[in-house]
Specification:
alpha+beta; five-stranded antiparallel sheet; 6 helices; 17 strands; 22% helix; 40% strand; elongated; RAD9 checkpoint clamp component B; double-stranded DNA 3'-5' DNA exonuclease activity; DNA_clamp_sf; Rad9/Ddc1
Length: 244
């Protein structure tokens, strides 16, 4: 059995890594692991391919990071896709992980197509989870962000405070941008839903953003669940959130 990738995450980093998995679980049912020289990328996409997210953990995040410890002739890119329902329970209770886990080792083994998560816990306890993965084409969203006419950057807390005013049952919202303001409002595709549901709308002035560039008036409707997942991570670990 050949280790295609091996990394070790120290105590404080395990909770951060778990929060990233929680955020990706709100987007898609599958998790891509992509170990490359610049770090370990974790990606997911929803079933409609309308929402995509990627977390890239640089080698500095890990106590040890080796993207390919196998023979030189086996150094092709690993195409590793896991079922999210198999991975998420390993990081379900982040508070327990923070108290009891000293480190987590993740390795991808070939040719058996197995991913091994090994948690080294207090009192000398080691928990090992061995799961199979499916070989798949690498998941990568390609879009020219530098060509986007609209760019908004704000503190995650600002966006989180706005989103919290929408009911949990709200599925979609519309983001409207103009040079004068940004609006967020409820969206209902079915007219019967519009009659029964509560409508929420709020606006922000350009001065409330860290960076505000609107070249084209735009209206974008998207799922709220995915945004909430990313903001839950960003509010704890990110200084600036950007929309393009």
């Amino acid at each position: 059995m050949t280790d295609k990738m091996k990394c070790v995450i120290e105590r404080n980093g395990v909770k951060v890594f778990g929060k990233a998995i929680h955020a990706l679980a709100r987007i898609g049912d599958e998790l891509w692991l992509d170990p490359v020289m610049k770090g370990l990328a974790m990606r997911s996409v929803n079933s409609a391919h309308s929402a995509y997210a990627c977390f890239l953990f640089s080698p500095l995040f890990f106590q040890h990071y080796s993207p390919d410890t196998g023979p030189a002739q086996d150094c092709g890119t690993v195409k590793c896709k896991l079922v999210m329902k198999s991975v998420l329970p390993l990081f379900r209770c982040l508070a327990t992980i923070e108290r009891n886990v000293d480190s987590c080792q993740i390795s991808i083994n070939l040719p058996d197509n197995r991913v091994i998560f090994q948690f080294h816990c207090r009192h000398g306890i080691t928990k090992t989870h061995n799961m199979g993965f499916q070989e798949s084409e690498a998941l990568q969203a390609v879009f020219p962000s530098h060509l986007c006419p609209n760019v908004l950057k704000a503190q995650p807390r600002l966006l989180g405070d706005m989103v919290m005013h929408f009911p949990v049952s709200q599925e979609e919202i519309t983001l409207s941008m103009s040079p004068l303001r940004v609006n967020l409002k409820s969206y209902y595709e079915d007219e019967s839903d519009q009659m029964k549901a509560m409508h929420t709308e709020m606006s922000l002035e350009p001065s409330e953003f860290d960076y505000f560039q609107v070249g084209v008036d735009s209206d974008i409707t998207f799922c709220l669940k995915e945004l909430r997942g990313l903001l839950s991570f960003a509010e704890s670990h990110v200084t600036i959130t950007s929309f393009t």
